[in-house]
Specification:
The complex is a heterodimer. By secondary structure, chain A is mainly alpha-helical. Among the domains of chain A are: about 5-50, no CATH class; about 110-180, no CATH class; about 200-290 and about 305-315, no CATH class. The N and C termini of chain A lie far apart (about 95 Å). Chain A is elongated and about 95 Å long. Chain A has helices at about 5-10, 10-15, 20-30, 35-50, 60-80, 80-95, 130, 170-185, 225-235, 245-250, 265-270, 275-285, 295-300, and strands spanning about 215-220, 240, 255, 310-315. In chain B, helix 2 (about 20-40) packs antiparallel against helix 3. Chain B has ten helices and no strands. The chains are: A mainly alpha, B mainly alpha. The interface of A and B includes residues 51, 55, 57, 66 and 74 of A. Bound molecules: zinc ion. Zinc ion binds next to helix 1 and helix 4 of chain A.
Chain lengths: ~325, ~200
């Protein structure tokens, strides 16, 4: 055995993983070759150093946490069929969740766009859910609250309590939008993204139910940037805008699908206050409810909140 | 009279029927090894804790696919290694801020995350031992992922070459060459300690 062969086998030799014949050959070589012996000793000390590292004990409570997680999982599995039914509902809702942007050009119509001021166009969602739901249309009521109609659900999204609070770090764009609004508020400028008639002072209002469909006004300085803001907010919340800018500008609204669990954050981003929620409740009573949102308080208490449809109406502020 | 601990095959049979209590016994027995490996792979205790929990949850979920020709411990290690790979992937797609935290692995604070050795030597020795440990840990973090995994499985977890090959799903020859390469690299990095 030459030096090169011996050196290549040193690691296995240390581990006792060599077949007997090779093991003996390496041993013999090391006995007569000082250079290889030095190499072997250095390697052996290296291995000893790594093996000297202390072992970490499993953290306190890890075993319990694993057990809790497994038991919870087992419980979930027992209601798997129920959950799959929920998923189906969720998907239907995601497909029909609608954000409508509406804007009124300040003073004269811009560019070659048709005159749109004072008229609202609400687009019906394509999903079956939306088709079932009654739609309330308003026209020429730009000065009023921008909530056109809503169908009630039994539960109110928790995050509504945190309107204006900082968004989770994954929702960077939404958070950025909110920060910009906060900066504007600080400088006395009205926020660019807000629900009309929605003062921040209404925070102690009674807990409203989450509407099945919201129609909110998004106020912006111009339609294009407003559209961009909404796109950004929707994308940041892992939602999806469903129409091109061209189309959206032409028809005064954009459709977007937003995951149900991101709805709270969308509302927060849009600065929808409880005043608006209250108004929605008022409107709910006037809007016939579908079978899906029919009162069933006992069931709704236990089950996760049902899907929600949202419409947001965009308005271009007139030059002041 | 204390009921004797059921054998591992018996526990596994019960787990396959969804018995979480039986699985709890296995968790109790193996959590230290899994946590130790994951901690050395990932560097910080909190991440390692979450990853270890995930390893056991995955193990329970896949328990029926466990083939008895491997040991349960080896199988757990393979889930753990995969969990660490996906955790690392997740990390690299995270923000720069997180990367900074990761690269601070050799900082004083991060090393405080490791449990001290069982025997507490005199303060002076302790200081030297801490420095030695810090250097070894740092050298390990500088190894490539594959090399580090092999070294940890062999020299920290004490697996033989066949078991390592099973854990990694590679040949024994690959284990040999990776381990040898990793040790040569470590020898170079730790030359200051090799006197
Ligand atoms: Zn030689």
């Amino acid at each position: 055995m030459n030096c090169e062969q011996a050196k290549s086998l040193l690691s296995e030799y240390i581990d006792g993983e060599l077949p007997a014949a090779e093991d003996t050959a390496v041993k013999k070589h090391l006995a007569r070759c000082e250079a290889c012996r030095a190499e072997f000793e250095a390697l052996e000390r290296t291995v000893a150093l790594v093996r000297s590292l202390p072992r970490a004990e499993a953290p306190e409570g890890l075993e319990r946490d694993i057990k809790v997680a497994l038991d919870r999982r087992a419980a979930r599995r027992r209601s798997a069929i129920f959950r799959w039914a929920k998923v189906g509902t969720w998907l239907a809702a995601a497909a029909t969740l609608v954000v409508v942007i509406k804007y009124s050009p300040p003073e004269a119509p811009r560019e070659a766009q048709p005159p749109l001021g004072g008229r609202e166009t609400l687009l019906r969602a394509k999903g079956s859910d939306a088709a079932k739901k009654p739609e309330t249309l308003r026209a020429g009521e730009d000065s009023k609250l921008g909530v056109a109609g809503a169908v009630a659900e039994k539960e109110r999204p928790r995050a509504l309590r945190k309107v204006g609070a900082s968004a989770p770090r994954t929702e960077k764009h939404a958070a950025g939008l909110m920060r910009r609004n906060a900066a504007k508020a600080a400088s006395g400028e009205p926020p660019s993204l807000k629900a009309r008639g929605a003062p921040e002072t209404e925070k102690s209002a009674a807990e409203p139910a989450a509407p099945a469909r919201l129609e909110l006004i998004y106020e912006c300085d111009d339609a294009k940037s407003g559209l961009a803001d909404v796109r950004q907010a929707v994308n940041a919340l892992h939602g999806k805008t469903l129409e091109t800018n061209k189309r959206a500008l032409l028809q005064n609204h954009i459709l977007a699908a937003v995951p149900r669990d991101k709805l709270d954050q969308l509302i927060a981003t849009l600065k929808l206050s409880k005043k608006v929620q209250k108004e929605l409740q008022e409107r709910e009573r006037q809007v016939p409810q579908t079978a899906q949102s029919a009162p069933d308080n006992a069931g709704a208490q236990k089950a996760p909140p049902p899907p929600v449809q949202v419409k947001i109406i965009l308005r271009v502020r007139a030059g002041e | 009279m204390v009921k004797p601990l059921p054998s591992e095959p018996e526990l596994l049979r019960r787990c396959a029927k969804g018995d979480t209590a039986a699985f709890g016994t296995l968790v109790s027995h193996h959590q230290g090894a899994v946590f130790n490996l994951v901690l050395r792979m990932l560097g910080d205790r909190e991440t390692a804790r979450d990853a270890t929990q995930e390893v056991f949850i995955k193990a329970f979920r896949k328990i029926r696919s466990f083939e008895r020709r491997a040991s349960f411990g080896t199988w757990l290690y393979s889930i753990a290694v995969n969990q660490c790979i996906s955790e690392r992937r997740r990390r690299t797609t995270r923000s720069r801020k997180s990367e900074v935290q990761m690269s601070a692995l050799d900082s004083e604070q991060d090393n405080a995350a490791y449990d001290p050795p069982g025997d507490s030597p005199a303060p002076d020795d302790r200081l030297g031992a801490d420095e030695t440990r810090r250097q070894i840990e740092h050298a390990l973090t500088e190894l490539g992922h594959d090399c580090r995994t092999v070294v940890l499985l062999r020299d920290v977890e004490g697996l033989d070459y066949n078991s390592i090959a099973e854990v990694l799903g590679c040949s024994k020859g690959t284990v040999k060459s990776r381990l040898h390469r990793a040790r040569l690299e470590l020898r170079h990095k730790l030359r200051g300690l090799l006197k």
